[in-house]
């Protein structure tokens, strides 16, 4: 009895001494046990915080919806706000009953994560997010989940199948939380989305930790199960080429088609395990910006996707695939190397006047020096022999003094420089071909003095003052090819789409050298995007596939392959030869007799003139002798 009383007193004294420490230890132990307790809310909250951090790493906006009308929801709300506060994460609070989503929008829609808690699935029926931006992500926590709640959850998931919504559901045992979402499933019999879709588990939470890092699936991979993927194709080279398009009506089935867009769509269809049904879309190729009729076919659900060199010009009527290639309207012009002629050689020798100045100066100084030395200077001999020495055909007049010898030495040096100058100019004239005239900017094109050839129905696509003034001076032509033909034949200018440039440059090349060049500056640049039905479940997946193909350079490769890799290579080679200062010889650059044939022609002409002079002199002297004989006979 005494022993028991003594033990109680000792215990009481210990409690007084260590009570505070024991209280803290108990509190910490309770919190630790709470986190490790699979039945506690702390384990769930820890997973929720981890989910939000994994979803948006850079400055996420976390919006927590509070339900003040429900005690259970409000109690959970208090716990979740405390959990985020403990991690020092910024949160925004909004009343769940008045939530419209308008308060969360701005420039950061993609960073918004909305967290909402329901103690049962019945409250999902009153939760409407139709007016909320589709970029906003949702984490919906359901604490009390029963088998009867499955149909309500399924109905809600099917309603918002295209939204990023992740459900956190406590399993029937209450130990773990399943993280699920709804992914589209195709009914292969009806070839449309199934009416009833089961939720798919993408992650799980157990003992305050996530099984994987997945929160929202990055890409929804839909298996169409070989159902037809309906695609509308317009025609624009090289994006799509339909051989028998003249025989087709709008929306007719296409049996034969090729082009870069065709190959891209085949890759997309393979991604969805789909067959492809091609439909023809009639439109103007040269000025397609005004065609909007085929947009109606996309919006009414007849087509999933439209391609064939289309643009992002229809606003919010459709969704877009993202940029996968570009197209530019460019100036092209005829480019010809100037032919080699002796007149151009004379023009090339524009520096010869300096030697003439020195020649006249030498003649003047030589005459003055001889006169100063009291010799008998002959201006005629000085001028004649000085010229002969300058061109290397005669010697100078014998000098009479030392100062005259010095003058002659430096004049002979000048003669050597003249010979070198002439040799260099002759060598470059005979071996180097100068490039054609090249235009780079708008201003160079407009001030070139060339006549533009433009189609009267398509040339007013750019409302720019300088362009309009230049277009007013144009002459008419019919279509891209006719304008290009007139440009080449008449040394003019025209504007065409750059995808026609490679083919035209390769086809018109002469001796592996381009006869048509383009200005560096584009008139206007547009970017190709495919059109997607706005409510299509494939929008995000198609955009991701296009982005990956573009970044990998596959779109550019398919574009060049559709034109023809050999055509592109030939065009690039021809263009390089046309714009470079190239030697006309292959090796050694030797000057041939053919190249200097003009010298022999001049020599022959000189010989003929000399012969004629000799004949005239003989005839003249013969006439004088005859006259003298006659005069002597007359005197006698």
Short description:
The chain has 18 helices and 23 strands. The chain is of the alpha/beta class and 636 residues long. The strands form six sheets. It has an eight-stranded mixed beta sheet with strand order 2-1-3-4-5-6-9-10, with helices on one face. A five-stranded mixed beta sheet has the order 12-11-13-22-14, covered by helices on one side.
Short key terms for the protein model shown above:
8-stranded mixed sheet, 15% strand, D-Maltodextrin-Binding Protein, domain 2, disordered N terminus, alpha/beta, 636 residues, 5-stranded mixed sheet, Rossmann fold, 4 domains
CA radius of gyration is: 46 Å
Taking pLDDT < 50 over at least 5 consecutive residues as the criterion, the unreliable ranges are 1-39
Mean pLDDT: 77
In spatial order, strands of the major sheet run 2-1-3-4-5-6-9-10
Q: Report the portion of residues in β strands.
A: 15-25%
Let me know the largest β-sheet: 8 strands, mixed
How many domains, as an integer?
4
Cα distance, first to last residue?
Answer: 198 Å
What is the CATH superfamily of the largest domain?
Response regulator
The tally of strands reads 23
SSE class: alpha/beta
User: And the CATH topology of the largest domain?
Assistant: Rossmann fold
Percent of residues in helices: 40-55%
């Amino acid at each position: 009895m005494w022993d028991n009383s003594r033990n109680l007193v000792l215990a009481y004294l210990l409690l007084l001494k260590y009570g505070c420490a024991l209280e803290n230890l108990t509190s910490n132990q309770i919190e630790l046990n709470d986190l490790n307790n699979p039945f506690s809310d702390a384990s769930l909250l820890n997973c929720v915080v981890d989910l939000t951090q994994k979803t948006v790493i850079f400055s996420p906006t976390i919006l927590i919806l509070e339900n003040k009308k429900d005690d259970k929801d409000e109690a959970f709300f208090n716990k979740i706000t405390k959990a985020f506060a403990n991690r020092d994460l910024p949160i925004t609070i909004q009343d769940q009953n008045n939530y419209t989503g308008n308060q969360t929008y701005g420039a950061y829609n993609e960073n918004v994560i909305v967290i909402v808690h329901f103690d049962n699935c019945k409250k999902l029926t009153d939760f409407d997010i139709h007016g909320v931006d589709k970029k906003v992500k949702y984490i919906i926590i359901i604490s009390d989940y029963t088998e009867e709640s499955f149909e309500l959850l399924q109905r809600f998931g099917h309603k918002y199948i295209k939204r990023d919504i992740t459900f956190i559901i406590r399993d029937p045992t209450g130990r773990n939380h399943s993280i699920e979402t709804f992914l589209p499933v195709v009914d292969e019999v009806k070839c449309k989305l199934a009416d009833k879709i089961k939720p798919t588990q993408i992650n799980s939470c157990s003992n305050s930790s996530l099984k994987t890092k997945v929160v929202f699936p990055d890409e929804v991979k839909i298996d169409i199960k070989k159902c037809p993927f309906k695609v509308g194709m317009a025609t624009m080279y090289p994006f799509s080429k339909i051989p028998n398009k003249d025989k087709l009506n709008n929306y007719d089935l296409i049996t034969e088609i090729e082009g870069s867009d065709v190959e891209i769509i085949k890759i997309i269809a393979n991604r969805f395990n789909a067959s492809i049904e091609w439909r023809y879309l009639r439109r103007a190729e040269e000025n397609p910006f005004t065609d909007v009729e085929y947009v109606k076919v996309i919006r009414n659900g007849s087509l999933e996707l439209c391609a064939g060199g289309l643009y992002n010009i229809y606003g919010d009527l459709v969704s877009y695939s993202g940029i996968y290639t570009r197209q530019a309207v460019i100036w092209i012009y005829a480019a010809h190397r100037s032919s080699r002629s002796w007149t151009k050689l004379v023009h090339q020798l524009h520096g010869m006047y300096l030697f003439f100045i020195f020649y006249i100066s030498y003649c003047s100084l030589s005459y003055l020096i001889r006169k100063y030395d009291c010799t008998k200077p002959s201006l005629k001999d000085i001028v004649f022999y000085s010229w002969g020495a300058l061109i290397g055909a005669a010697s100078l007049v014998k000098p009479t003094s030392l100062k005259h010898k010095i003058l002659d030495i430096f004049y002979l040096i000048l003669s050597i420089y003249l010979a070198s100058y002439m040799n260099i100019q002759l060598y470059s004239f005979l071996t180097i071909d100068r490039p054609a005239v090249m235009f780079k900017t708008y201003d160079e094109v407009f001030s070139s003095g060339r006549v533009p050839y433009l189609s009267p129905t398509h040339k007013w696509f750019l409302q720019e003052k300088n362009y309009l003034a230049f277009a007013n001076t144009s002459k008419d032509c019919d279509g891209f090819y006719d304008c290009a033909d007139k440009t080449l034949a008449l040394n003019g200018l025209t504007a065409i789409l750059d995808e026609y440039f490679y083919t035209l440059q390769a086809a018109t090349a002469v001796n592996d050298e381009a006869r048509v060049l383009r200005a560096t500056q584009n008139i206007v640049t547009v970017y190709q995007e495919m059109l997607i039905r706005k409510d299509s479940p494939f929008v995000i997946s198609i955009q991701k596939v296009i982005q990956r193909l573009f970044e990998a350079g596959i779109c550019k490769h398919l574009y060049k392959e559709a034109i023809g890799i050999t055509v592109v290579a030939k065009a690039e080679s021809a263009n390089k030869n046309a714009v470079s200062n190239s030697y006309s010889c292959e090796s050694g650059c030797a000057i041939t007799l053919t190249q200097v044939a003009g010298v022999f022609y001049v020599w022959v002409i000189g010989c003929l003139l000399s012969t004629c002079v000799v004949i005239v002199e003989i005839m003249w002297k013969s006439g004088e002798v005859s006259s003298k004989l006659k005069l002597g006979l007359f005197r006698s």
